Amino acid sequence: MKVGFLGPKATFTDIAVREMFPEEKAVPYLTIPDCFDALIEDEIDMAVVPLENALEGSVNITLDYLVHEVDIPIIGEVTCPIRQHLMVHPMNKDKWKEIGVVYSHSHALAQCHKFLHKELKGTPSEKTTSTAAAAQFVKESPDIIAGAIANELAATEYGLEIVQKDIHDVSYNHTRFIVLSKKKVRLHEEKSTYKGFKTTVMITLPSDRAGALHQVLSAFAWRKLNLSKIESRPMKTGLGNYFFIIDVDMKQDEVLIPGVVAELEALDCQVKILGSYPYFQIGSEKSRVQHL
Amino acid sequence: MKVGFLGPKATFTDIAVREMFPEEKAVPYLTIPDCFDALIEDEIDMAVVPLENALEGSVNITLDYLVHEVDIPIIGEVTCPIRQHLMVHPMNKDKWKEIGVVYSHSHALAQCHKFLHKELKGTPSEKTTSTAAAAQFVKESPDIIAGAIANELAATEYGLEIVQKDIHDVSYNHTRFIVLSKKKVRLHEEKSTYKGFKTTVMITLPSDRAGALHQVLSAFAWRKLNLSKIESRPMKTGLGNYFFIIDVDMKQDEVLIPGVVAELEALDCQVKILGSYPYFQIGSEKSRVQHL
User: Does the distance separating the beta carbons of A221 and B292 come in below 8 Å?
Assistant: First the structure.
């Protein structure tokens, strides 16, 4: 099977893909819409895209596609720690203090602000479209003493030397990636990275019934269904019109979730299940899902 | 008094400033953090920045500053319709069909995608840092037949000719701007644009008590306090840790809102009132606040 992902090779999304689908053919796409389009047109069997970062919040373009553009279920989720390293061309590995310019994605540069300020003060930085693109550029430019900020996979893929490890300012940064597919693909729940099952529900409230959101949450609360996320998004029909995306910390069943859906529809809400899927977590950091 | 705003001159923020503070000295800043910093350092008395757009959602950088960086109350809100026009240098006003390149902010180009596809198919576009910057560039380049997509104020300010009005694809696009100040500034509630009062509350849930969000909403619901917005944001302490920003559709009082705060604190929530302030709406479009 073919797995499309937000590329190029050796992005953090690629790390998620290699963890989940080590045997499948991975196909990089340059943008998130390109991934979705390839999935819609059956160029690929699955797509892996970022959904939420612990520091930056939701990836709006992914949410917008899920809600407005595609009708393809989420079949899995992977959380990946975001660890950034400083790397140089092997020819320059003893000269990293003399780096003349640092290349990386704007988010990665921001995430390593303190390190850059302390260790490479005054060194200019240049933004690239991804951390992997920065690594690729540095590999192709051995004649200038340039550094790239990227992940370990990028150092391996592009043959760079990591000269400073874990230079990101905040240690708890993670990104959640989702897997989408039209097909019923079985993900490997026996893996050690498997953490549980969740169900993602999109709910549109009836127009202007005060207290409707409280009623919605009541339908989950009295059944003791734990929510691990709620997010409001504008409906694109004007300010003050929102829909909600709610993650329920359980697998879709035959009784409780259908009961919630029936009750919410009776309250004039529109309800759509975006997927019920296993979630996985890469890395040994302590995992914690806060229940709302 | 000095009012800092997200500039340059003739941005949509500038339109909001002119509506709210026609008599005050307006000072443009190039970025939202620059506006906040100027306010913190008392270079300006008030700051006006965008908070939320009906199509794009919340402006993350504004929310982040409000929550993590500053302790300055919101004292007012203005909602402004987003109307985009195609404008050219007056020398080229009869040649707009021959435009060789269209300049604008990436959001504005996206908002006029259908128009550009239909009327100027194949014409390349160039992104600028704001719609106003596009207008300024076109004014300074009469020798090339270039178009700018910007608002009416930009056409007036930079002396351009509007050749196609209201070219945005979706008619209901609006942006909410907030006014921040350390001072007790009285806004003009007698104006026809005045629509009412709201109170914005930030709530952090106790860690991992399932159903806490439902309890929070109950504290508002049994008092029949109407909510017009709820937004969850990551806490920057890891995925799955969220705080909530809630808009209550009333002025802060001595009984009901203090009662909510006391109850929520008793439930181990952290509560901070970001402001209680009048809101205003520019433009004649029908105004509607959906209650949640």
Answer: no
